[in-house]
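Aim 2 progress update. The chain analyzed this quarter is reproduced below.
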Amino acid sequence: MAEFLREINWSPLWISLKTGLAATVIAFFLGIFCARKIMKLKPEGQSSTGWDPYSSAGTSSYSGWIFLLLIFSLKRPFGSFLLDNFDIKIVQTWKGCVIAAAVIAFPLMYRNARAAFEQVDINLIHAGQTLGMSDSRIFWRVVMPAAGPGIASGTVLAFARAIGEYGATSMLAGNILGKTRTVSVAIASETAAGNYGTAGFWVVVIVLISFCDRSADQYRIRKRNENKKVDLMAVKVNIEKNFRDFSLKVDFEAVRQPLGFLVLPAAEKA
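Predicted structure tokens:
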């Protein structure tokens, strides 16, 4: 086993992690930006209905890599323009890995961010406006913290999608060992070469990464729920008020009796 691990070329793992992190950062800010713009265009109080161009963009690996090749291919105007004027080459480079993974991960981030924004209480936004806060300040100080759990879940899903992408990455960035070969591409390459042991090892690695990613998200959710718990057992209220014709007694004790009202006629009480 030790000899097997020494013979493993670990570059696909580092390339996958770097690509996943970079693509997640791009998808994070781009997804939040687009979700915010769409929410501004949506009439207040109206739910999300109809076709959304952002949510469907890049959801399929096939549509993703076709879209990317049409833009960044050196035989296309934009790709040749970048190379001739700025010496920037996207195809068969690590930058291609990042762009491909970001395009594929973007819809997951966008949909989660938009759903989180839609769940924010509109009264919080109105309260910020009443206090004279600007729209940008309300967004970053009110909306973002309130939508934090949904955005965090979208970030986790975007990262998992980015490190596991194969189709768009292989078509745009290729399969260059030590340069553009990610774990997913390495699995396909080793399987095609008949190295099933190495391919199985990379499968285990990417499953462990996904498991750790998901476990971290679940731990975050559990800690957030624990922090919200309030010990209500100590809360007990017993108020009695005498009126002209009757008396009102309010007996409140958390958990066992949420709220109880006991009304007794004044004559009966006497």
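The domain at 2-228 is CATH 1.10.3720.10 (MetI-like fold). Residues 230-235, 255-270 have pLDDT under 50 and may be disordered. These observations will guide the mutagenesis experiments scheduled for the next reporting period.
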